[in-house]
Amino acid sequence: MAFTVQDFEDLIRLLDQHPEWVEALRQRLLVEERVNRLEEALTALAEAQRRTEEQIQQLAEAQRRTEEYIRQLAEAQRRIEERVNRLEEALTAFAEARRRTEELVQQLAEAQRRTGIWFASVQDHL
Question: What's the longest Cα–Cα distance across the chain?
């Protein structure tokens, strides 16, 4: 059974005769409109939730890459610190070798001076 123009006119006439029905009809129509709006809002919220979850997934992946990069940097820093420690040890050994060399040079210079004096003294006696 289809709702005809005559049925609509009858409805309007009945509403005019019973004003209390107008409010009931309005509430029923508004409830359906509100339900439709709520459904639209829920659909929009579900889409926003989906995008948020996608962004969280992207952020989690970025965080994983950042943590891996930090791990690599920490490993590189550890290797650099080891190399710096070896260089410091080599520098300390070099400084010690230089100190000993300078001592030997001084001893040789002193020995040469004494030998030169002794040699000069021997020549004077000859």
Answer: 160
Q: Would you state the structure tokens that stand for residue 52, as one six-digit string?
A: 């948020």
Domain count, the chain: 1
Whether 77 and 71 have beta carbons less than 8 Å apart is answered as no
Residue numbers of the domain that contains 72: 17-93
Would residue 116 count as lying in a domain? no
Q: What is the tens place of the pLDDT at every residue in 104-119?
A: 999 998 888 888 766 6
The structure tokens 């359906």 sit at 32
- 71-90: pLDDT as tens digits: 999 999 999 999 999 999 99
Residue of 78, 58, 98, 14 lying closest to 66 (CA atoms): 58
